[in-house]
Amino acid sequence: MSTFWSKETVMHEPYTGDDGPIDDDIKIDPEQATLPKGYVWKTYNITNDGDKIHAFLNKHYMTDNTFRLNYSKEFIQWALTPPNYIADLCIGVESNSGVIVGFIAGIPTKNRINYNVIDCIEVNFLCVHKKLRGKKLTVRLVQEMARRSNMHGYKHSFYSTTKQIHQPICTTQYYHRI
């Protein structure tokens, strides 16, 4: 298991309880995580900042080392602004000079687990500048997403990955519409 996921709030033991939320009593720090000197948190307006986000993702967003995803600006805007989207969940980290070095976005979804419907945040476009990978910026972006999601009343979120995670709580096959 990667060092990152072994320290995150994921289950490491098989879950044998009822379907539905695992723990509705999750406590998230209400204070924004601090960033290293020279970096600031940024909340993006996907309509106004679309060009900047698009340029960053096209240069740095990859699913693995075999190919790079190259989404259009219009697709990114469409993906991040469904009905009932929360503008506060389009989060970035910028250098003091205004250069994006990290980005993460989340949209509200309803997910069915057998007969239970759970309000969740679908997290997507998690991306860190190539030169800053391995410097714990991903951890801070995930923590900030969790904090903001919690502030909006969402206790659960899901992420997708191409990497194998040790003892995942579930696996699924889904179709991605592009």
Measured on Cα atoms, how large is the radius of gyration? 16 Å
Structural class assignment: alpha+beta
Total count of strands: 7
CATH topology: Aminopeptidase
Distance separating the two termini: 30 Å
CATH architecture name: 3-Layer(aba) Sandwich
- The helix content, as a percent range, equals 10-25%
Order of neighbouring strands in the sheet with most strands: 1-4-5-6-7
Strand content: 25-35%
CATH classification, class level: Alpha Beta
The number of distinct helices, counting runs of at least 4 residues, comes to 4
Notes on the protein architecture:
The protein is α+β, with helices and mostly antiparallel strands and 178 residues long. The protein has a single domain (32-158), classed as Aminopeptidase (3-Layer(aba) Sandwich). It is built from four helices and seven strands, in the order αβαββαβββαβ. The chain has helices at residues 3-6, 50-60, 73-80, 137-151; strands at residues 39-43, 62-64, 67-68, 90-95, 100-113, 116-128, 157-158. A five-stranded mixed β-sheet has the order 1-4-5-6-7. It has a two-stranded antiparallel sheet with strand order 2-3. Helix 2 (50-60) crosses helix 3. The protein is globular. The two termini are 30 Å apart. The mean pLDDT is 81.
